[in-house]
Design a protein that fits this description.
Elements lengths: L6 H16 L8 H23 L11 H5 L3 H11 L5 H13 L1 H5 L1 H4 L2 H7 L3
């Protein structure tokens, strides 16, 4: 994905290069660290630009968010979610899935990357 990387991604790449020889003798980074970098790169290269074309902002001004939400139904839903995330349908679905496959299996990046797990985590 040839794109101009953000400063964040460039710094992360520099740190991973340093870390892979300083921390890991064979120079191979663990799968989860590698995949996190790849997902960030993919987001910068494809997902964020697609959102921009649809009118979504590139960044979220969290300080201004409460005033932008006003007294909308969405605001009420978000307040409820922040007050008790464990009551959300998404949270309950994921907890159920973890219960079925076991916590150890869920922690493996390969399991989280399976289509069934990704579909489960999708909102809506």
């Amino acid at each position: 994905m040839p794109i101009q990387r953000t400063r964040y991604l460039q710094d992360q790449e520099t740190e991973l290069e340093r870390m892979k020889w300083a921390v890991y003798e064979d120079g191979d980074l663990p799968w989860d660290i590698t995949i996190n970098f790849c997902e960030t790169h993919r987001a910068e290269a494809k997902i964020i630009p697609l959102g921009g074309r649809e009118g979504y902002p590139k960044t979220i001004d969290f300080a201004a968010l409460p005033s932008r939400l006003g007294d909308s139904e969405f605001r009420t839903d978000m307040d409820d979610l922040m007050a008790s995330p464990e009551d959300s349908p998404l949270f309950k679905r994921i907890v159920k899935r973890i219960g079925k496959i076991g916590r150890g299996a869920w922690k493996k990046a390969v399991k989280q990357g399976e289509k069934k797990s990704l579909d489960l985590a999708m909102v809506g």
